[in-house]
Amino acid sequence: MDYRGQIKNYIQNHQEEIIDTWKTLVDSPSKVNRKEDLDVCCGKLAELFKNLGFKVTRIKTGPANGDVISGILGEDRPGKPVMFTGHYDTVPLPGEHPFRFDEEGHVRGLGSLDMKGGITIAYHVCKMLNEIGWQERPIKILFVGDEETGHDGGNAAEVIAKEAAGMLCAFNMETGLLSNAVCIGRKGDIKTTMTVHGIAAHSGNAFLQGRSAIAEAAKKIPLLEALTDLNKGTTVAVTLIEGGTVFNSIPPICKMTIDSRIKQVSERQRIFDSMKEIAEMNFIDGCTTEYICQEYMPPFESSKENRRLAQLISDVSESLGQGKMNAVELGGGSDASHIAMIGVPALCSMGVRGEYNHTENEYAVKESVFERAELLANAVIHIHEFEQN
Fold this sequence. Notes:
Layout: H1 3-13, H2 15-26, H3 35-50, E1 55-59, E2 66-73, E3 82-87, E4 100-101, E5 107-108, H4 116-131, E6 139-145, H5 156-164, E7 169-172, E8 182-186, E9 188-197, E10 201-202, H6 213-225, E11 235-243, E12 249-250, E13 253-262, H7 268-280, E14 288-297, H8 304-319, E15 327-330, H9 336-340, E16 346-347, E17 354-355, E18 363-364, H10 366-381, H11 383-388
Parallel strand pairs: 3-6, 3-7, 7-16, 8-15
Antiparallel strand pairs: 1-2, 2-6, 4-5, 5-18, 9-13, 9-14, 10-12, 11-13, 17-18
């Protein structure tokens, strides 16, 4: 069966339809925490995939969070499913940012790159595989509506892990890199806020009665940044400090924000434990410290299986004339981490290529939506080569 030729024909004959799908999704506002808009966009996605024959379920995760869309096509087919994942929520930039083309022919609009272009690719990969009659194994989709907040206020992380169990592999349709590399690992991100309380006193008349929260915080900073372990890919940085009340008072309060990036899952507990220990240390009598330690995203740890999957993708890319795809590890987090943590091989940054996520300058390379759709459709057809190795 000449699936490759049929895929190429689909791409050539459906370019306008692919762009229309992309436009429909971008022009359906879904700024994070705007529940009404998220529900509308979620409904449109659910309808799109239902029309392809997917059995679709919407899973609630939190009162202000967008639902998770889980869908399965060909549930009765043999073999483990291949899964496409991602998020349909966007950052909450002010104003309207509709789908449009700029002077260079790039696609603009909030979410065009991050990551409704990736969802467009996943949808049309499934649609073209349907049309060419490929039915070798099930295909699953999983799109969340609160990724941009790290799933704060909801349980989407647990839902992802549950829904991804038993998959052969997963393609996370996050922002594609301009370099055409594929992401096999990302650092996790832990955000810690420490609020140091001291005792206010007039800095001239009652100096000895005061207890400086800023001085207490300053003694903690070297200990915090000493948690960095470059050999393990762990970095800890105090990134924001706000303290004091007025010029002539011993500062009764100082607030610090600490950004911890970890490459290895095994480093998570060390960071949590160390933040607690440092917060509880008391250098100046009369000072106390409150702290909140939250994991935005766990690490997406690179693995041998991720590298094998990346090699298959690169081989398919070269065979299509799209060039070699290097495997890279990145600093920012993604939901691929929740999938990799349960042992399912995953690749990230499989969506449309572009740059300037989360800004008004966000853009996507138009041609990349066609290239990645062709690439991933062919990769799914050849996924048995990954399974057999």
